[in-house]
Amino acid sequence: MQSLFIAESLILREKLELAARFAAENMPILIMGEPGAGKAAFAEEIYRRRNAECAALFRINCFSPPEDWYGGAAGAIRQGRGLFFNGVDGFNAENQEAALRLIEGALGRAFIIASSRLDLEQMALNGSFRKDLALRIGVFPVCLPPLRQRPEDLKALSVFFLKHSAAACKKKITGFSDSAMERLALYSWPGNARELKNRVEYAVITGSAETGLVEASELELGRFSAAGSGIGPETALKDAVDFFKTEFIKKTLEFYDGNRSAAARSLDIQRTYLCALIKSLGIDGGV
Question: Is 58 helix (H, G, I), strand (E, B) or coil?
Fold first, then answer.
């Protein structure tokens, strides 16, 4: 398994090395961090370092019902594959019970790794998460710092995403202008690496490529805020409402890794209505 994980910052490399040592001892690892911070990529890299020749991690979408993943996970355990519980903070009571039963049978036989956007200890204290499950999967918790605190990774990831996108689009774009690099460094990146990837890909696809460099204006950072959207006093109310709906739904889908069922529950609407909104508003994403 070839590594595509990028860790130029000292803080991320230290966390990765420590987590890899726990993984080598088959200790369950819990990765915490903001949406888009790279939790899944971090999990894959830990698993690769643990056994580069091993079969791929078996991913479990924690917003899906147990019947969608329990049988496959049990089979993965028999094959000696690792289990990755992606987004355990999204587990409902039924999923938590099934996961606990699965993990108790897997201990000593399969490597367990999980990710969460929320503090499971706090969730256990307020009764929204089983304490016994939190203890099982949180033997070694590691918190990924957001991208805005990792300038070295920001630069390296920007270059990586640009090269990948330029090759895919067959465009002769080789780097960023000085103003673009300054804009990337000053932006707060609330969506972390996922947002960075989206903005760089957008710039490469829509940019002119005349200079061979991505310009600051082509990144369109902050375009999802009202200030950068063209929304103003002369905007029709329907257009403003549609803009808000579109961006709010996009952010919700992003938070739940594209899971429409989980997003609909969070928005307190029916999944069918959410799907209709996604279609009518021209939103791309979610399953």
Answer: strand
Side chain identity at residue 202, one-letter code: Y
When comparing pLDDT for 97 and 282, which is higher?
A: 97
- CATH number of 148-219, picked from 1.20.1410.10, 3.20.20.30, 1.10.8.60, 3.90.650.10: 1.10.8.60
Helices (H), the chain: 10-24, 39-50, 70-78, 93-106, 120-125, 131-137, 151-169, 178-186, 192-206, 216-219, 237-255, 260-267, 271-280
DSSP H/E element including 32: strand 29-32
State the residue for tokens 């939103």.
Answer: 283
Q: Average pLDDT of the chain?
A: 86
Q: Are 85 and 72 in contact (CB under 8 A)?
A: no
Instruction: Tell me if the pTM is above 0.85.
Output: no
Q: In the beta sheet, which residues pair with residue 213?
A: 175
Which of the two residues, 208 and 157, has the higher pLDDT score?
A: 157
The model's pLDDT over 105-156, given as tens digits with 9 standing for 90+, comes to 887 788 999 999 999 999 999 999 999 999 999 899 999 999 999 999 999 9
Q: Which fold has domain 226-280?
A: Arc Repressor Mutant, subunit A (1.10.10)
C-alpha 76/C-alpha 56 separation (Å) is: 10
CATH number of 10-145: 3.40.50.300
Q: What's the distance, CA 50 to chain centroid? A: 22
Bridge partners (DSSP) of residue 84 are 59, 113
DSSP 57: P
pLDDT tens by residue, 78-96: 888 899 999 999 899 999 9
The 10 Å CB-count burial string (b at 16+, else e) for 76-106 is bbeeebbbbbbbbbbbeeebbebbbebbeeb
Q: Which helix (H) or strand (E) holds 176?
A: strand 175-176
